[in-house]
Amino acid sequence: MIARIKRLVIVASVLVLAGCASTEGPQNxxxxxxxxxxxxxxxxxxVDKAVFKPIAELYAFITPRPVxxxxxxxxxxxxxxxxxxxxxxxxxxxxAINTTGRFLFNTTMGLGGCIDVASMNGQPRIENDFGIxxxxxxxxxxxxxxxxxxGASTVRDGVGTGVDFVxxxxxxxxxxxxxxxxxxxWGLEVVVRREALLTVSxxxxxTALDPYSFIRDAYLQRRAAxxxxxxxxxxxxxxxxYADVEADEKALGISQEKD
Length: 259
Known about the structure:
By secondary structure, the chain is mainly alpha-helical.
């Protein structure tokens, strides 16, 4: 049954990629829709500066750093469930076992994931999602794609993002019956994600000659390494992912000591 579902997903994804093929000769072969993508990037940047960034800055101002770290870790801990599922789908069962161990360790000894005791004890987070699963199954990544509000992606990862949202939420926050509480937790997650990237995004904007190309190249390099199972992939920065703030700051030479 799983094999049949896998074949259907691969066929459907390849058809989507074929339908999205471009006839223009791009400057970067991986980014044939650069004109459109830059427009979306500019839109996202404008919305971010007008809405999300001010809210994230206010959240950072009124919330002590230890509390922010605790909340961020708890969201990341919930994400371990979906990472484990994808590791199993990719037949990377050792990763799935390690991720399950991290989740149980942090949930119990780490007070519901507030404290990342697993990382403190030499068990780093193994990030995973359905876009990586599609890549492992052989679905080509397709053109680079900047999604409205969500940012850097590819056609394959865009398909994966939809599955990620359903899978990652249905096994965690999405199970909460209280609609007001559930929506509030989703909203808080958006703020937490943006706040975690405040220093990184400001540094990228200030130092990169072309932030768009800088983020694109880093994203594509990291995703390719993750699909290939490169053990160093987790250390590559993704400047739009709040789970990789430490790697982003290390790559940019930002001090870890913040207020």
